[in-house]
Amino acid sequence: MPDAIIATTNLRKTYGHVEALRGLSLQVQPGSLCGFLGRNGAGKTTTLKILLGMIRPTSGEARVLGRRVSDSVASVEIRRDVAFVGEDKPLFDYMTVQDVVRFTAGFYPRWRQDLEQRYLTTFGLSPRTKVKTLSRGMRAGLALLLALCRDARLLILDEPTSGLDPDMTEQVLQALVRHVASEEMTVFFSSHHIAEVEQIADRVVIIDRGRTIVAAALDDLRAQYRRIHFVFDDDAPAPVFRAKGVERMYRDGRVLTVLASAGAEGIVEEGRTLRPVSVDVVPVSLKEIFLESSGVEG
Amino acid sequence: METSFLRPNPSSGVPIYLQLIEQVKHAIETGALRAGEQLPGIRPLAERLVINPNTVAKAYRELEHDGVIELRHGAGAFVSADARPRQMKENVRAGQAIVAAAIGRLRARGLGEEEIRRLFEAQLAGLPRKGERSA
Question: For the whole model, what pTM was predicted?
């Protein structure tokens, strides 16, 4: 089993009276394109900041590329191999595109000239354009170019397609797929655009209220999660299922709905003993899994 | 050949790798892909369709398991030359007849198109997929 590229163990972070992280554990494997989902306020930004060494956890451990982020020596080494693109993309507004690229390239001995050419074209960036006149999409493209050309082993992104038009969004997603497929990079990105996560991610981590709620391969989620509708002649019962995998149950008049994270067949079998009039089993989208996992008092 | 692949729909309820498998089988049936022809590489196809390379790899593995394609180490993926694709065509034709008969009977019972579609989808969603263990 290869070493995880990112591994947090029971991270806690308290700001005054507010517990932003309440024992958050997650892992990201090498070569993964991992989506990081959570409501606003769930603790995503705090987690990313800890991973990037920008803030310290109150307790618990975070390791990036095998090294503890709280170790100040390791932290410098980590920064060399980890690229980050945040939501606000601070760039040197007074410089031209070419200046910014050359300036940044100077810090990284493994700078990829080939990728620089490619992404200048892909993102439609003219070398002599002043950064401050760039459109939002081009700004995002430039920020991504600077991150990708560094030849980092890990790329962390916070809302990479926020506010981008469909064409630019596709270019960004395609670049991420390319780097995981061909450049052996690991990508960990937070996003509210669930359809995009479904499209390119192989794993997903969903957090809520400072804790990990779901951490799984997308294929497993698709194979295991089911919504089961039992329709009854009279008011639906409120059974306690012995079968495992029941996440939620709703009753609405004569319909009992079960959200299962696994074991749908066992639940259907048990439900049939209650003599429903009909049983329906349907797949569950990632969006529904997300909505069902977050925001409800557990 | 890469350009003839359609972008899969990530939110359709049908896993992306299954959509890809269907596309390859359909391409073989229509003659867009012929016996012995090479399929796009896993990475280029993933990039082209903007989907995860593991998804393409999974689709290719299953196609190989079904005898539809051959994965030649170092060389790439090629449409099988043997009779399996032909057998698949016959299976599809037989399947079409079965589905036509089933739909005819459901219609005779007064079920509408939407209801019939839901019945099929529910049945498919409830079944463990080939190769997957029941939870």
Answer: 0.84
Quote the domain boundaries for residue A240: 225-294
Would A1 be classed as within a structural domain? no
Q: In this complex, which of A33, A180, A285 lies closest to B11 when CB atoms are compared?
A: A285
Q: Identify the domain boundary among A192, A216, A240.
A: A216
CA triple A46-A50-A53, angle to 5 deg? 140
Q: How near does any CA of chain A get to the CA of B83, in Å?
A: 31
Examine the predicted complex and report whether its ipTM is higher than 0.90.
no
Check whether residue A11 and residue A116 sit in a common domain: yes
CB pair distance less than 8 Å for A281 and B53? no
- Chain A contact for B54 (CB, 8 A cutoff): yes
B29-59 residue pLDDT tens: 888 888 899 999 999 999 999 999 999 999 9
Same-domain check for residues A188 and A263: no
- Chain A touched by B111 (CB under 8 Å): no
List, as one string, the DSSP characters of B72-92. Answer: ETTTEEEE--SSHHHHHHHHH
Kindly determine whether residue B13 and residue A245, on different chains, have CB atoms separated by under 8 Å.
no
Determine contact: A264 vs chain B, CB below 8 A: yes
Do A85 and A160 touch, CB atoms closer than 8 A? yes
